[in-house]
Automatic annotation (TrEMBL):
InterPro entries: RALGAPB, Rap/Ran-GAP_sf, Rap/Ran_GAP_dom, RGPA/RALGAPB_N. GO terms for molecular function: GTPase activator activity. One of its GO terms (biological process) is regulation of small GTPase mediated signal transduction. Residues 321-370, 602-641 are annotated as: Disordered. Residues 348-370 have a biased composition (Polar residues). Residues 614-624 have a biased composition (Basic and acidic residues). Residues 1021-1282 form the Rap-GAP domain. The keyword DNA repair does not apply. Pfam families: RALGAPB_N. This is Rap-GAP domain-containing protein.
Length: 1302
């Protein structure tokens, strides 16, 4: 029967209440629990079995049922049985279902339900109660139900206060901190979109954690609930005070709880900074697979304490900047959950992946005891903070007090033996790392309160002074940006950081830090800090480092020093780190820093430039064409009595690099390539050192090439040949920058032997054996190596003074119609096109002489000479007429007139008959004996004639006869010469062997004529002349003001000088000299600039041109004025070959538009697609409109955005510049140096390093791509095509006949 009266239900509930007090393993207690849980669900749905009084007023009876069920959770004597645990789980599960599903609960019922959960959790979790089997479930149900109450019936203030007081007493339970972390993360993921908008990176948490927050909780309730839940745990530092009076078991677990709480705080901080959290498994697919192994991300994605992060939306559009995975044996990434070590069993309530755990599945188990030890630090990637993140002061207002106290727990009154134990170091390290991350994420121009800065500096100084390994690791891993974010007074930390970096970078084993973090990542973080410290001594110079820092540290003997005093110490640290480091990527970073430091030191010591009117504003790296003369470079190799610091550093670095290159590094292709690039850059640094030092560097590069070429054939690969090609490029740089080296016979012979080795595969002189070149077989290491050696040979010839003339134009190259008809074209040795032109009579001098204009077009470029043939040397010949060369007839004496004197011409020796003959006289038979019969008759006739002549001459009347003597005069001078025939004859090409076809299809005769009358010949030559003989690259330069996001705004900055900063204009002047498009004239930078902000160099009329012997780089500064014309010109130029109408339209365009389209299109033909962006605010990097700019510049027509490389330059208040390099994807050839992401450089070195970077990026592209051959190879292929298309088909007689008809 159903109970229909209230009194019946009340009496029954009293009986059930008593039944709950019985032994838990009896069936009575189970039946009582089943009845109560069934009646509770009346608020969810009505059942027929429910008594009518309860159905009529369910809220009242549910409140009484909850008060009765509390008795079930009171402590019971004896062992807790599994039956009892299952009954408790049943009650908690029903309570959770009631809160989730009920829509009829009144506010009183909500209050009763929350009181019920608070009381049972206090019984289960309050000290001295140890952690039981229900702790995880009870805390999880309490927090979830409390969140539901906040969404439907917000708890009153007194209830919140009670909750906070009780919760503070439960913090010794591991389950409490774990469940609190889950709820805080879920609330934060819901709060961030409301605060920062949908564009802010979401705080990614597991689905089960995000589902804890009710979907209908919105608006202010989310923020109020988040704030109150955040402060439920109160200050985690209070756990240290509780450790003094705790039991042994609690004392063991408290350090781990403290660490987990600080990690949760750190996760919340990273969420507010815009750092998206992922587990290590989720980020595994983001790591590129390369030869160096799976790589982590760039400097701003350095390892963190315990969790990994994803890439931002902007970074996903570009290749990641990779690093190698830590070596085997390094610590694996630690998941987001509570830290575990082999000595400490994991907490079973939470797995690394946080799988779905619901009470209904009964998977809640008791937390095992945690024997805490310092957890390893993960090596997962980390992305930078989002531009929309909150201010630093706001984060410090929320979390600063907890974090500062957590780091300084060893400095207060509680610094007893318990506190000083290393067991608390992990929590301190997490707090210290979080603080470092907050301050390094300071926005550009943001002001931080002085109280926070002073406390932060005190935290760092204390942490570095204590030298606690986990804390030091945390500081280094999270301070990579500390010295490049414009923090006030941060440079005062230089001495402390230098000391710590010395302990890390100079120690090869790092025994103190093993097991805490991957040693490779620790060194990498230290290297990044070192990169930001290196320019400070030279930049700040005599500025004093106040001793107040040491006084604050309690040092009584504090002394003040200046920044310049740390210069040599930092140099020694950098060189020592390079000698100690073994990781590939770390070595490459150090190599990039070395070139920066050496050039900056040399530029700082260089005298100021003279105020010559024709001198450019650039002071340290002139952007002019290199003239290959013997006097070039003598000022740098002049011997000085005392070397400067820069010279000493240069010598030391060159010795170290060459020694390592030929020993330890020679098997690492990535390191070798970076070292060769740095060596090439060092060759361009202006220092005064002994010539022997430069000679030694060249010899080391030659030795390296010999070693690599001498490897066994199975070890030869494309990568090995790429390194050999790079070594030849490095050798070319040293020869062009130091031409005096070729004046030394030993150096010249060594270089020529290396060229021979590259071309033929072996050297003629090996040990004591000499092999003639005719006896050698051509077997080069590869075709690319052979071509690189040929380029080096051409470079040697250019250094000797036979370099190409860059000023040649179409009229000089004889490509106009009149010159083309009168010119003759030949092919020499199948690789060089020879053009000859004899000048017209009106072009001759007063005295005609054989003259010839000769142009040689070959793979190295085009060369021109004007030749004249004279009988006397040009220098010793005076101006004289042809008549002066006729000798005068001597006047005869009167008595000798009319007399003829007989002269006996003695053709043989006198008395020859008296000389006895020998057998050798008969070795040559007489002609009459050897000739044929016809010749004998002719000889007889000649003998008779001679005898008759002799008889006539001896007659007397002839001897007295007077003979009139006529003066002999030379013939009149001729004005027409066959100069081409003479020139070819003098060079030895007019021989039967040189003209005869060898009969091999792949070979051409040594001399071959070209038919210039064939259609398309002049156009083919023009294409050949337009192909650069040097590496030709192009880069775009943009200026982004603070807050700009659209391409129109960015392109309009350079229109006016008032819209850009002065350092930007200085930077432009350091890139190169202004050059007129389509012309060779160069102008003064200031005169061309005018009132423009750099937009005058947009490619319409002027560009910035950097050129040396091996490279030419064009810098274009796009502007809004040329935007429309730019697109139009490029589209028309791109469609001229496809449509005849477009071709006619292109012909009608002005020459200026044609030159402009050619200059802009050079960007798309270049090997390196590179954008240089000057940003006033560092946060704008993430918002840079890359895709829109690529669409507007049409750069995506030939390459995707993944191949675009961007160099962001951000000026700092110290006068230095922070570099952010995106797209520097580390491939099998390693990173591109010398500019790496996170580097800080000075104004003196910025232009030099940037031009080196553009050149090296282009070289990497050519080495890794089969479709990007070097310039001389492109010219060689085009020359072969011209020969095949336009060679003359005439016979040998016709060829000779044509020579005489000129």
């Amino acid at each position: 029967m159903l109970m229909s009266l209230h009194t019946q239900v009340k009496w029954t509930m009293e009986v059930l209440y008593y039944g709950l007090t019985l032994q838990s393993d009896t069936d009575t207690v189970k039946l009582c629990v089943d009845i109560y849980t069934d009646w509770m669900m009346t608020l969810v749905s009505q059942k027929s079995s429910t008594p009518p009084p309860i159905s009529r007023d369910p809220n009242l009876y549910v409140q009484r049922i909850l008060r009765h069920l509390y008795i079930l959770f009171l402590p019971r004597s004896g062992q807790v049985s599994p039956v009892y645990l299952s009954l408790c789980q049943q009650v908690l599960s029903s309570t959770q279902s009631l809160a989730r599903e009920s829509s009829m609960m009144s506010s009183e019922t909500w209050q009763t339900l929350l009181h019920f959960l608070l009381r049972i959790n206090h019984n289960l979790l309050a000290p001295p109660t140890p952690a039981g089997g229900l702790s995880d479930l009870s805390v999880a149900v309490l927090l979830e139900v409390w969140l539901l109450a906040c969404s439907r019936c917000f708890p009153c203030r007194s209830l919140w206060q009670t909750f906070r007081q009780m919760f503070s007493s439960w913090r010794h339970q591991p389950a409490v901190v774990e469940q609190w972390s889950r709820v805080a993360a879920g609330l934060t993921s819901r709060l961030l979109p409301q605060m920062f908008g949908p564009s802010f990176p979401p705080f990614e948490v597991p689905d089960e954690d995000a589902s804890l927050v009710p979907p209908d909780m919105e608006g202010e309730r989310v923020s109020h609930t988040w704030f109150k839940f955040l402060h439920l745990f109160s200050n985690p530092v209070d756990l240290i005070g509780a450790a003094a009076g705790s039991s042994l078991d609690e004392d063991i677990q408290l350090p781990g709880i403290f660490f987990r709480a600080m990690r949760s705080v750190g996760e919340l901080v990273y969420a507010f900074l815009g750092v998206t959290v992922r587990t290590s498994g989720q980020t595994e697919h983001l790591l590129p697979n390369t030869e160096l192994g799976a790589r982590s991300q760039s400097r701003d994605r350095l390892p963190s304490l315990g969790f990994s992060v994803s890439r931002s939306l902007f970074r996903d559009r570009l290749p990641s900047y990779g690093f190698s995975r830590p070596r085997s044996g390094s610590a694996p990434p630690t998941p987001v959950n509570f830290p575990t070590t082999p000595e400490a069993p994991p907490i079973k309530s939470s797995s690394p992946s946080r799988k779905q755990q619901t009470p209904s599945s009964h998977h809640w188990t008791s937390s095992s005891r945690l024997r805490f030890s310092c957890p390893p630090v993960s090596s997962a990637p980390r992305c930078p903070a989002h531009p929309l993140r909150c201010n630093t002061d706001s984060l410090l207002h929320l979390f600063g007090s907890w974090l500062f106290e957590a780091v300084l727990i060893t400095s207060g009154k509680q610094a007893d033996v318990t506190v000083m134990s290393d067991r608390w170091a992990a929590g301190r390290a997490e707090a210290c790392g979080t603080l470092c991350r907050i301050f390094t994420c300071k926005k550009t121009g943001e002001n931080i309160q002085s109280i926070y800065l002073s406390r932060f500096y005190l935290v760092l100084l204390r942490s570095l002074q204590d030298a606690c390994p986990p804390v030091v690791v945390s500081v280094l891993l999270n301070s990579t940006h500390l010295f490049c974010c414009d923090l006030r007074g941060v440079n005062l930390l230089l001495p402390s950081f230098v000391s710590v970096l010395e302990t890390v970078l100079l120690d090869r084993d790092l025994i103190r830090f093993k097991g805490l973090v991957s040693l490779v990542d620790l060194r990498r973080s230290s290297i990044f800090i070192l990169l930001s410290l290196m320019p400070l001594p030279v930049q700040l110079g005599p500025a004093q480092i106040q001793n107040s820092v040491d006084l604050m540290m309690g040092c009584e003997d504090a002394t003040a020093g200046n920044f310049l005093s740390y210069k040599l110490r930092l140099h020694s640290l950098l060189i020592g780190a390079l000698q100690t480091e073994t990781d590939t990527c770390n070595i490459q970073l150090l190599l990039a820093a070395i070139l920066n430091v050496v050039h900056d030191s040399a530029a700082a010591e260089a005298p100021p430039p003279s105020p010559h009117p024709d001198q450019s504003r650039r002071s340290d790296h002139r952007n002019q064409e290199v003239q290959f003369r013997g006097t070039n470079g003598t000022s740098r190799t002049r011997t000085s009595t005392t070397q400067s610091e820069a010279a000493v550093l240069w010598v030391h670095v060159v010795h170290l690099l060459t020694q390592r290159l030929t020993s330890q590094w020679r098997n690492d292709s990535a390191v070798c390539l970076s070292a060769l690039e740095v060596l090439g850059g060092l060759a361009k640094v202006e220092v005064q050192v002994e010539a022997s030092e430069r000679r030694r560097a060249v010899g080391s590069v030659c030795t390296y090439i010999v070693f690599q070429c001498g490897r066994p054939p199975p070890l030869h690969s494309r990568d090995l040949h790429s390194i050999i090609v790079a070594a030849f490029c490095c050798l070319n740089t040293w020869l062009t920058q130091n031409p005096d080296l070729l004046h030394q016979q030993e150096c010249l012979l060594e270089v020529l032997e290396i060229v021979e080795l590259g071309i033929s595969g072996s050297r003629s002189r090996q040990d004591q054996n000499v092999v003639w070149k005719d006896d050698k077989d051509l077997n080069p290491a590869s075709l690319r190596v052979k071509e690189a050696a040929e380029a080096t040979l051409s470079c040697i010839m250019q250094v000797s003074g036979a370099g190409p003339d860059p000023s040649l134009r179409d009229n000089t190259l004889m490509l106009d119609d009149s010159s083309l008809k009168r010119s003759r074209y030949f092919v020499l040795e199948g690789s060089v096109i020879l053009a000859t032109l004899e000048p017209t009579p009106d072009q001759l001098d007063q005295e005609p002489s054989p003259s010839l204009l000769v142009i040689l077009r070959g793979p190295p470029g085009h060369h021109s000479w004007t030749l004249q043939l004279h009988l006397l040397p040009k220098d010793a010949r005076a101006i004289q007429t042809q008549a002066a060369l006729i000798p005068r007839q001597p006047r005869l004496a009167a008595e000798d007139a009319g007399q003829r004197r007989s002269i006996n011409h003695q053709l043989v020796l006198e008395h020859i008959e008296r000389v006895p003959s020998v057998g050798a006289d008969q070795s040559i038979p007489p002609l009459i004996r050897t000739g044929p019969a016809e010749d004998r008759q002719q000889l007889d006739h000649l003998r008779v004639t001679l005898k008759t002549q002799q008889e006539i001459e001896v007659q007397p009347w002839l001897s007295s006869h007077s003979v009139a003597m006529a003066t002999c005069r030379p013939p009149s001078p001729i004005s027409c010469f066959q100069v081409t025939r003479l020139f070819l004859s003098h060079l030895g090409f007019l021989t039967p062997e040189s003209v005869k076809d060898p009969g091999v299809n792949s070979m051409q005769p040594a001399l071959l004529s070209l038919d210039s009358s064939l259609p398309g010949f002049s156009e083919s030559l023009r294409r050949l002349d337009q192909l650069p003989s040097r590496n030709s690259d192009c880069a775009f330069v943009f200026y982004v003001r603070a807050g700009q996001k659209t391409p129109r705004e960015i392109l309009g900055n350079v229109d006016k000088q008032t819209r850009v900063s002065g350092p930007f204009l200085d930077f432009l002047s350091s890139l190169g000299c202004p050059e007129e498009v389509g012309g060779a004239s160069r102008s003064e930078f200031g005169a061309v600039l005018g009132d423009s902000g750099g937009g005058v160099f947009d490619g319409r009329r002027f560009v910035l041109k950097f050129a040396d012997a091996l490279t030419q780089i064009t810098f274009i500064v796009p502007s809004s004025h040329t935007y429309t014309d730019w697109l139009k010109s490029f589209e028309e130029a791109g469609h001229t070959a496809a449509s005849s109408s477009n071709q006619k339209r292109a012909e009608t365009r002005s020459s200026e538009d044609i030159r402009f389209s050619q200059s802009v299109s050079s960007f798309f033909r270049s090997d390196s697609k590179l954008l240089i962006v000057w940003v006033e605010r560092f946060e704008d990097i993430e918002k840079f409109p890359l895709t829109d700019l690529l669409l507007e510049t049409r750069a995506q027509t030939e390459t995707g955005s993944s191949n675009i490389q961007l160099i962001f330059i951000h000026p700092l208040k110290t006068g230095l510049f922070r570099i952010c390099f995106l797209g520097n994807a580390s491939t099998k050839l390693g990173l591109v140096v010398p500019l790496v992401n996170g580097m800080v450089t000075s104004r003196r070195s910025l232009g030099f390093l940037l031009t080196e970077m553009v050149s090296n990026c282009s070289r990497h592209c050519r080495l890794e791509s089969d479709s990007a051959p070097p310039p001389h190879v492109r010219r060689k292929h085009l020359i072969n095509d011209i020969i095949l298309c336009y060679k003359s088909r005439c016979s040998e007689p016709a060829f000779y006949s044509a020579l005489f008809q000129l």
